[in-house]
Design goal:
12 strands, globular, Rossmann fold, 403 residues, PDH_E1_Alpha_Subunit, 12% strand, alpha/beta, thiamine pyrophosphate, 11 helices, two-stranded antiparallel ribbon
Length: 403
């Protein structure tokens, strides 16, 4: 098997290097095994571990096939182009409301989805366009929601921060910082209650890592041993504030205190995949675990943030040059001779066409009709349910009807 990089001989627990426990000794987790056509890839960045001294962490290598790497490369490139187009739409004043982009962080979500299934629940923050895509929706629907056009996601009423696909167990983007943390615990409780073999993943950023509700929910999850994976996407800056200025302890994988944690290279899709595979197995057997994915966002916090007032252009360019997740996947494919440059170029071209077509269809879409503004407020709400509007001439329903 072809090896791409030398593996680390030890992992760090806190600041101390310790050898990992033999993988075979952990019944809940199986080490990666070769399959037909797969190549072995060793990870060049070791994990940092918290409270896993006895158990050890994930494997420091994996096996990947051409099909898998092509799939990951294609998905990440589609994410990147989708977000870049969203940037253009926002600047052209087509996007209604806020807009938080994901470019730079593609390996985190792609690696997560490669390790779990749609039976596993996912909830995230307002940086949520790509989650809607990976859970099976179309770019056209995503753009329509961004542009306030009628579509199946939130009927054009939610916008960028309120993606949602319950049929694929994606419980949305959440506009309140950290609000997804207790929701994730609730989803994990549901999986345990139903005994359906699923886990819940709650994604949040380093900025949300200091929210009190995160710790309250994690305490309950630990008490009840819920199958919960907290994923801190540490993109280095919470809004305009660097992690060192906002967190007394910026080792987010240790912030669970009594809950184990792992820090992983969030710019390597295969590294993330293996880490999440371990985390899912651990959560099903032992309860909650905290993952910190060391990543980087290229855009500012939101479109109102230029992203270069608190960091310089050289920093952003340096990450693009040395750690870009899409370029890393491309290098795997080319250096392992699993694909040609022409094949990858065709994938990129197809993604650009897909984005362009989706944008045009979204622009041509119709906005929601006025009456939809008064719907979806209460469960089983009737058409005659009375709702008073700011302008009394457009009150909805029939006076006195309260169901």
């Amino acid at each position: 098997m072809l090896r791409l990089a030398a593996s680390a001989s030890a992992r760090r627990v806190g600041s101390v290097a310790t050898a990992a426990r033999p993988l075979a000794a952990r019944s809940f987790y199986s080490a990666p095994k070769p399959t037909e056509g797969a190549v072995k890839i060793d990870f060049d960045v070791p994990y940092d571990l918290h409270k896993l001294e006895e158990i050890g962490g994930p494997a420091t290598y994996t096996y990947a096939t051409k099909k898998e790497l092509i799939e990951y490369f294609s998905l990440m490139y589609r994410m990147r182009r989708m977000e870049i187009a969203a940037d253009t739409l926002y600047k052209g004043k087509f996007v209604k409301g806020f807009c938080h982009l994901y470019d730079g962080q593609e390996a985190c979500l792609t690696g997560i989805e490669a390790a779990v299934t749609h039976n596993d629940s996912l909830v995230t923050s307002y940086r949520d366009h790509c989650q809607q895509l990976t859970r099976g929706d179309t770019m056209e629907n995503i753009y329509k929601e961004l542009l306030g056009k009628y579509n199946p996601i939130a009927k054009g009423k939610g916008g960028s921060m309120h993606m949602y696909k319950p049929d694929a167990n994606f419980f949305g983007g959440n506009g309140i910082v950290g609000a997804q943390a207790p929701i994730g615990a609730g989803l994990a409780f549901a999986h345990k209650y139903k005994k359906d073999g699923g886990v819940a993943l709650a994604m949040y950023g380093d900025g949300a890592a200091n929210q009190g509700q995160l710790f309250e929910a994690l305490n309950m999850a630990a008490l009840w041993k819920l199958p919960l994976i907290y994923v801190c996407e540490n993109n280095q800056y919470g809004m305009g504030t660097s992690k060192g200025r906002s967190s007394a302890n910026s080792n987010y994988y240790t912030r669970g205190h009594y809950v184990p944690g792992i820090k992983v290279d969030g710019m390597n899709v295969l590294n993330v995949r293996e880490c999440v595979r371990f985390a899912k197995a651990y959560a099903l057997e032992h309860g909650p675990i905290v993952l910190e994915m060391d990543t980087y966002r290229y855009h500012g916090h939101s479109m109102s943030d230029p992203g270069i007032t608190y960091r310089n252009r050289d920093e952003v360019a340096g990450v693009r040059k040395t750690r870009d997740p899409i370029e890393r996947a491309k290098r795997y494919l080319l250096e392992l001779e699993l694909a040609t440059a022409a094949e990858l170029k065709d994938i990129e071209t197809a993604a650009r066409v897909e984005v362009d077509e989706a944008v045009e269809k979204a622009k041509a879409g119709a906005p929601p009709v006025r009456d939809l503004l008064f719907e979806d407020i209460y469960v089983n709400q009737s058409k005659q349910f009375y709702i008073r509007a700011c302008d009394r001439t457009v009150d909805h329903g029939v006076m006195g009807v309260t169901k």
